[in-house]
Amino acid sequence: MPHSADLFERSGELEVLQKAMGAAREGHGGAVMIEGAPGIGKTSLLAEGKRMAGSAGLQVATARGSELESDFPFGVVRQLFEPLLAHMDPQERRRVMSGAAGQAAVVLERVVPEDSRGGDFSIPHGLYWLTADICERQPLALLIDDLHWADGDSLRFLNHLMPRLEDLGCCVVGTLRPFGLGTQPQLLDQIVTTPPSVVLAPSKLSPAAATSLITAQFAKSGCPAPRDEHFLSACCAATGGNPLLLKELAEALAAEGVAANAANIPQVYAVGPRAVARRVAVWMRRLPEDCVALTRAVAVLGEGAEVAHAAELAELPLEDALQAAKGLEQAQILFTDSSNALRTRLGFVHPLVRAVIYEGMPPADRHRAHRKAAVLLKTSTAEVETVAPHLLRTLPCGDDETVGMLWTAANSALARGSPGTAATCLRRCLAEPPPPRTRLDLLSALGNAMRHVDTAGAVPYLEEALALAGPSRRRVEIALALGNALLLLQRAGEALAVWRRALADTAPDDTELRNQLHACILSIPLYEPGRQDMREDILSQVSELRSAVPHPGPGGRSLDCVIAGHDAIIGDPRAVLRARSALRDAPAAQQPNGQISVSFGWLALISADRDEVMGSLDAAVEQAHREGSLNGLTGALTYRSLAWLCRGNLEEATADALTAMRAVETSSVRLRRLVLGPVHAEALLERGALDEAGKALEWTGVPDPAPITGLMYYVLHSRARLLRMRGRTAEALDAALAAGRSFSAAGGQNPAIVPWQSEAAVCLHLLGRDQEARALATAELRSARYWSAPRALGRALRVAGALAEGEADLPLLREAVDRLRKSPARLEYAKALADYGAAVRRHGKRREARDALSDALDIAEARKAAPLVRQILDELHLAGIRPHRHAVTGLQSLTPGEQRVHELAVQGKTNREIAQHLFVTTKTVEVHLSSIYRKLGVAGRHELAEKSARTFSTPAPG
């Protein structure tokens, strides 16, 4: 195994590692990230962490990232889990790979089935459950060296695992270099900064520790111990106190017989920064030529190379290669791993040593060696993913076999849920180049793979594919993909042109494809409301297509969702029936254009306060988890978060928003941010977290002042609320009016989507401009009555009532309470009760005020709506009223999350089955069940069925 330098001055770091291992043993997982320059001691600390994990009784799994293998899909994951699974008996292996964990099988199987549906989310989810199942048997330590060179797929798994670690008996320890080095710096940043991750940054050694290390190394080499202070100071300065460089410098100086005195200080500075390279060069000059050839072969093959493969690449007999490996191990250049009796493997003692050897090879020799390595690995029936990294490092030469192998590797990567690796392989195919007859298929495959990882990067390939494709259905399908990519990049004009040309090319009798194209074209004004040059013509098409209800087929249902979106924006109640029909007949996963269209159906039902939208959203979230669609997951979670917000379920809204935001962070699509950021901000504003709400709006990337084009009205409306709550009323009014201009540019008139008029009215009232305020409030009330959904109408009535003169306030506020009483919008109901209670108090009706304010307080406190709670308490205090509190118990006291857990528990599902069904952790289920038992007054599961005879038909008052 690799040599570990002495751990000088690392007691603090060792204590953190020790605590992390102990916590994992007790079931409280965590992560320790050791960040620092090469040679600072990261690997030595990791080795000590491995020893600690074993002593604490943890299972240990190790891996090392490699620049060569950074394109190997789930390479680090496989290093970690394959040995763990290999040491299990068949029964135990079946146990840990059951249920949701089975989704990870596609990563760990040697050959991927052709019908595999691995996706960019389902596999990390399956790997999480595999980790959880392994930890159930025995706590686990995952130790990863050189995390910055890990493949992107493994990093995505770790990114998924981090926020769920605390519920597992699992400790993750990784080493990485700073300054954004590596394959996926953004993912690395998320992994390092996500709680419960702790970052250790080992510092350079002090002069005293450096002196001790140098002295020990000279003594180990049989040389007199250095005593010259100037010489020792020079050693410390030349290496910057880096432990590895100090050790290598001392070894190189001792090996060359350099006396440790002041006269040789210039040589110290000459060797210091190149200590590793100098030491390796010295040893390589002394070693036989066989050793040189073997080190170069291992450098090309990568970490853990089989000695038989290295011998063949080095053109050495196996016996000679084994003998050379012993010499290189003595020289501390290679280490030998013989844990597998059938396959001895070789690796470098430190990545810096491998870099010195590899970079010392002439580029042409490297390319030839990689091509030869690919051939011998293919001949030895290695997995195609093992062959591909070598082909990626060869020079293009028009070789059809190379194209074939890389294309096969790309298909395998897609099946394993690794579109990034697939795109890398397909790009290299394109450079080879491929035979002309296959170029169209290759461009199309590459463009679609790139859409998963880099939407902007996909466009050129899809454009070229579109140009190559002759008039055909295939050409239209490419146009649909290209237009979607352009729209997500906010290049709506180009998307529209592509789709219109495709529509002109589509056969008149191909109703399905024409409906898909119409759905795409009609969505343009909803995404780019400020583009009047596109808007009028498209809206005339909406009117023409609105007549047929419903449109047939999946494409027709997509079209109906988009038309429903147009109707919802203008406040036409016909939107609700159309959206209900489209979503009932076609779940989100069956929509041909994905959530580009279905999201408008959700928007219509959410703004109408329809209960059935929650079932559609839940199904879409579940489908996205199962199919592994990261884009689908972010869309479904964004709109489910909006639905929770409209219902006043702030905890659920925040949880979904945070999950979606984390997923969006790994994509290049900005369009999602324009809806998701404001939804998260609104939930935070309701809880009084103003600073966090401000950060959520900054996350959207929208400047201030914001442009009117695009989906800016959500951001502007939320910005107005934030400014008002911060006391910046004049600025808040400007933002609210800007939101109105942006919404009106989209034809927006529905206050259930953007209630900008009531927001502006509140601002005007605070500025003393009551006449203008009442005019805006009256206008919103008129639109809300036409749409007639309880939440929007109740809000409009409440604001109009609060601004009314004299006794005109009570009828409006009383109607607001009545309209909202049976609606799912519980927080809006609480606000109406609060304003009504304040009004009747001012009119001298003290008992009625107490009842209304007390009911409002129950709801607001249950939802942790801090600003509303303070408002109600202030009103009660002013009136000298003691609130009449209701003890909310029984099934009606359960939160939506608790209700779902309760329903599944009553069905007899285990905690693990519930967690997998709801895509949460087992710990979260346990917490929900504890709360359910307390609220229902039961001792455990066996009493739940008796307490569940009642239904949830009556909305919960709290």
UniProtKB/TrEMBL annotation:
<keyword id="KW-0067">ATP-binding</keyword>
<protein>
    <submittedName>
        <fullName>AAA family ATPase</fullName>
    </submittedName>
</protein>
<dbReference type="InterPro" id="IPR036388">
    <property type="entry name" value="WH-like_DNA-bd_sf"/>
</dbReference>
<dbReference type="InterPro" id="IPR011990">
    <property type="entry name" value="TPR-like_helical_dom_sf"/>
</dbReference>
<dbReference type="InterPro" id="IPR041664">
    <property type="entry name" value="AAA_16"/>
</dbReference>
<feature type="domain" description="HTH luxR-type">
    <location>
        <begin position="887"/>
        <end position="952"/>
    </location>
</feature>
<keyword id="KW-0547">Nucleotide-binding</keyword>
<dbReference type="Pfam" id="PF00196">
    <property type="entry name" value="GerE"/>
</dbReference>
<dbReference type="InterPro" id="IPR016032">
    <property type="entry name" value="Sig_transdc_resp-reg_C-effctor"/>
</dbReference>
<dbReference type="InterPro" id="IPR027417">
    <property type="entry name" value="P-loop_NTPase"/>
</dbReference>
<dbReference type="InterPro" id="IPR000792">
    <property type="entry name" value="Tscrpt_reg_LuxR_C"/>
</dbReference>
<dbReference type="Pfam" id="PF13191">
    <property type="entry name" value="AAA_16"/>
</dbReference>
